[in-house]
Amino acid sequence: MATTADFKNGLCIELNGELWSIVEFQHVKPGKGPAFVRTKLRNLRTQRVWENTFTAGVKIDLARVERRPYQFLYKEGDDTYNFMHSETYEQLAIPGELINNPGLLKEGQGVEIMYHADTDTPLTCELPPFVDLQVTYTEPGVKGDTATNAAKRATVETGAEVFVPLFIETGEMIKVDTRTNKYAERVK
């Protein structure tokens, strides 16, 4: 058992018979009335985001989860992804809906798969915050074409599309934020 004082981003809790991960939280102390904690929770089974308010100090059940390192091997069929444990070399196939951004996975990519410790079932697969990918196709940018920050579509080596600045060309390596699917910077 824990209380709302133990909240932190990424903490997994059991609520209403489901497993939830805290996306963000905020302690609020209004001028009148008791303090409370406003949270955004992500259901680990359905990936649905739910906003909930807890009274400050209320007891909550923590879920026992483990994060295990895996390496992406290959995609099989339409929606099955195969991974290998980095230490035991055990292979695992999981559906694409458990992966936070499957379009940015490339072969050999390291990921963390979160397991529910009591049932030993995979809950989510998280990519690192940033991945380096090569641009395989983008339209050429025209010099002097903009007055503000403009973007164009670029296809990266995994087949995903990302909006990039006009100066990015085909063949360049870029860093992509896996949480937002946005261009971060050019890799030197």
Features:
188 residues; SH3 type barrels; OB fold (Dihydrolipoamide Acetyltransferase, E2P); six-stranded antiparallel β-sheet; five-stranded antiparallel β-sheet; 16 strands; 54% strand; flat
In order across it, which strands form the biggest sheet?
A: 1-6-2-3-4-5
CATH architecture of the largest domain: Beta Barrel
Q: Regarding CATH, which class of the largest domain?
A: Mainly Beta
Distance from first to last alpha carbon: 48 Å
Mean pLDDT: 90
Number of separate strands: 16
What can you tell me about this protein's structure?
- The chain is mostly beta strands and 188 residues long.
- It has strands at residues 2-3, 12-15, 18-28, 36-43, 49-55, 59-62, 65-76, 80-85, 91-95, 110-116, 121-126, 130-138, 151-156, 161-165, 173-177, 182-186.
- It folds into three domains: 2-62, SH3 type barrels; 65-126, OB fold (Dihydrolipoamide Acetyltransferase, E2P), CATH 2.40.50; 130-186, OB fold (Dihydrolipoamide Acetyltransferase, E2P).
- The protein is 0% helix and 54% strand.
